[in-house]
């Protein structure tokens, strides 16, 4: 989780948010069986929301977003970098 004082994330305790396109049962089960802190968009009633909304929410949570949607998230990454 994110350290609220420094803003740093401890990778050993960081939450991983799983996007809709990556919510395969075997994948999610394997992560949970490994005792990783994961949340799927279905767990938090965020199915069907835009990539921008999912990324904004994940950022607010201090989490990392895992997605197979390379094309859209590459576009968002470029857009965020150019905004500064």
Mind explaining what this structure looks like?
The protein is an alpha/beta fold and 84 residues long. The protein has helices spanning 25-33, 51-61, 70-83, and strands spanning 16-18, 38-40, 64-66. A 3-stranded parallel beta sheet has the order 2-1-3, with helices on both faces. 10% of the residues are buried.
**Strand neighbour order, sheet with most strands:** 2-1-3
Structural class: alpha/beta
- Strands, total number: 3
The topology string of helices and strands comes to: EHEHEH
Number of helices: 3
Q: Report helical residue fraction.
A: 40-55%
Q: Could you say which overall geometry the principal axes of the C-alpha atoms support? A: globular
Calculate the terminal CA-CA distance, rounded to whole Å. Answer: 25 Å
Give the quaternary arrangement of the chains: single chain
Strand content: 5-15%
Tell me the radius of gyration. Answer: 13 Å
> Uncertain runs with pLDDT below 50, 5 residues or more?
1-5
> How confident is the prediction overall: mean pLDDT?
85
Largest sheet: 3 strands, parallel
Give me some keywords for this one.
single chain; 84 residues; alpha/beta; 3-stranded parallel beta sheet; 3 helices; 3 strands; 40% helix; 11% strand; globular; disordered N terminus
Short recap of the structure:
The protein has three helices and three strands; from the N terminus they run βαβαβα.
Give the arrangement of secondary structure elements.
Elements: E1 16-18, H1 25-33, E2 38-40, H2 51-61, E3 64-66, H3 70-83
Parallel strand pairs: 1-2, 1-3
């Amino acid at each position: 989780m994110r350290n609220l004082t420094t803003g740093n994330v401890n990778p050993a305790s960081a939450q991983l948010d799983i996007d809709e396109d990556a919510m395969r049962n075997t994948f999610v089960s394997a992560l949970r069986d490994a005792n990783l802190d994961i949340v799927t968009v279905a767990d938090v009633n965020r199915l069907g929301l835009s990539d921008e909304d999912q990324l904004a929410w994940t950022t607010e949570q201090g989490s990392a977003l895992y997605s197979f949607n390379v094309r859209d998230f590459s576009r968002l990454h470029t857009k965020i970098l150019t905004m500064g």
